Amino acid sequence: MRFRYKSGLMLIFLLIVTCATLIVSYKVYKENFYKEAVVVVDGDLTINYLDGNKFKSKKDLTLNFSVTNNGSEEASFYIKLANINADDTTYELKEVDGTLEIDNKLASSIVSNQLLIEGNTTKTYKLEIKPKKRTEYSGELMVALGSKNNATFGDIIIDNSNIKKNPTTKFNTSAVENEGLIKVKNDEGTSYYFRGNIVNNYVSFADLTWRIVGINSDGSVKLVLDSLLADKYSYGESSEYNNSNISQALNSFYNNSLNKYSEVIAVHYFCNDLLKDDDGSYAAYLRISKNFIPNNMCLGTKISSNIGLLTADEVVLAGASETENTAYYLYNPEIKDNYYTMTSAVMKNTSYYPYIVKTNGAIAYDSASTNTLGVRPVINIIKNISANGDGTKENPYILMDIS
Predict the structure, then answer these.
(1) pTM, whole model, 2 decimals?
(2) Domain chopping of the chain, boundaries
(3) Which CATH number does the domain 33-145 belong to among 3.40.109.10, 2.60.120.260, 3.40.50.1110, 2.115.10.20?
(4) Cβ neighbours of residue 180 under 8 Å, at least 6 residues apart?
(5) Which phi and psi (to 5°) does residue 375 adopt?
(6) Which ranges constitute the DSSP H helices of 91-193?
(7) Which CA distances in Å does 371 have to 237, 252, 284, 289, 354?
(8) Residue 8: pLDDT band by 50, 70, 90 thresholds?
(9) Phi and psi based region of residue 249 (left: phi greater than 0; alpha: psi -120 to 50; beta: remaining)
(10) How far apart are CA 76 and CA 210, in angstroms?
(11) Mean pLDDT throughout 281-287?
């Protein structure tokens, strides 16, 4: 009888220990969650995420992964952290039995570009993540095939595009078909702009989606955000962009969201077109709304900055007219507010009216600068950058360093 009693107590004790172990294990699993091994094939590369490529934890975490080059020729690849949600968390990336060692703050960025791997070779890596405040962090590890050569981003866009010397439609007509990448020669050199229903000008950069506007004459690439800033702003009383409320809003957006990518964002000129003709009319109004001859040269004030807005000329070149156009690439049904350009249209009494883009894709000049409208940022990417991807929505361009 006493033996059965002791055996029962022992069984209960073992059940309690087992339950406690399961509870602790479950807590550890929740605090250090990452999926099982994931294998991805990208060209000749096989990427084996031994501990999965998505992670979420409150504690120190190590992700092991390997990269295998199945081809006979040397290849390059890059390592990126994406969709990071972290506060005061650091990481260290190490190549096992290699020389690569990178320490940095955990954030969405390309960790290392153009890592080389010989043919028929496997390299293994450890990504060690350490939160300082023991607060939850999460994100995704991405490894992908790099550029096979030192082609610039602009070169890759040109190679992937249908190049034309002239647009298919006139500029007083909405461009609703894919008219390709238009090549333009002027005093500044050769530049390009996309027109119409373009489907291969998507870029994923700084955890945001952008659309390629064109390639500047110096080889840099102009991008426009595929959405608006969260808040609306007025242009202000002044027609000068540098004195506008929008300039302040864009600078704040840049400092908060883009400053850590400043090494690849060019300080470029943006055109604040305030030029007037002899009769006092804004030259842009006559050029765009009367004569229908937009251009991609700046005839107004050139403002040197790392962020700005589209010009009315660029919007018309992209495919807009003064009637609805929901088919060209600047139109996004998720954009619910009209938004400003940097180009002057008219003065009515003492009020300034810049060109704006309506929610239906049309260009207009029916809103005074004191009205609060949307703001759509524009940046320029430096020439000495390459890219991966094909520019489609499903496989957008991802920037890579080629220096």
Answers:
(1) 0.69
(2) 33-145, 153-401
(3) 2.60.120.260
(4) 161, 162, 163, 164, 194, 195, 196, 198
(5) -130, 125
(6) 153-159
(7) 10, 20, 21, 22, 11
(8) low
(9) alpha
(10) 25
(11) 90
